[in-house]
Amino acid sequence: MHRRSDVKPITYLKNRTADLVREVNEAGRTVTITQNGEAKVVVMDVNTYDRWRSAMALLKLLAHGEAEVEAGRAVSQAEAFRRAREAIRRARRDG
Predict the structure, then answer these.
(1) Quick one: three-class SS letters along the chain?
(2) Is 70 exceeded by the pLDDT of residue 1?
(3) pTM value?
(4) Degrees (nearest 5) of the Cα angle 89, 84, 90?
(5) What is the pLDDT of residues 22-72, one digit of tens each?
(6) What structural domains does the chain harbor?
(7) CA dihedral 24, 27, 29, 33 (to 10 degrees)
(8) In angstroms, rounded to a whole number, what is the distance separating the alpha carbons of residues 7 and 42?
(9) What CA–CA distance (Å, rounded) separates 34 from 7?
């Protein structure tokens, strides 16, 4: 869960935007902004955002792969390599 200092009211964002940006950037942490006591947005530095995006992309790939396996659309590693070798042979022959 969030530490108390990681949750700020929207008035803090309005009045101390530059300070908040500096704090988030230097500490590499996220800050949750609340409005009327309810969490509304999260502020994070660019590096944290990039890592988060990469993690989400990886999770999407994993979920897609699991769905493919459950649907029976997967092949063994040996079969995948056999198909790849065959595709390379065809490309060399036709290329």
Answers:
(1) CCCHHHEEEHHHHHHCHHHHHHHHHHHCCCEEEEECCEEEEEECCHHHHHHHHHHHHHHHHHHHHHHHHHCCCCCCHHHHHHHHHHHHHHHHHHC
(2) no
(3) 0.68
(4) 20
(5) 999 999 889 999 999 999 999 999 999 999 999 999 999 999 999 999 999
(6) 4-44 (3.40.1620), 48-94 (no CATH)
(7) -30
(8) 9
(9) 7
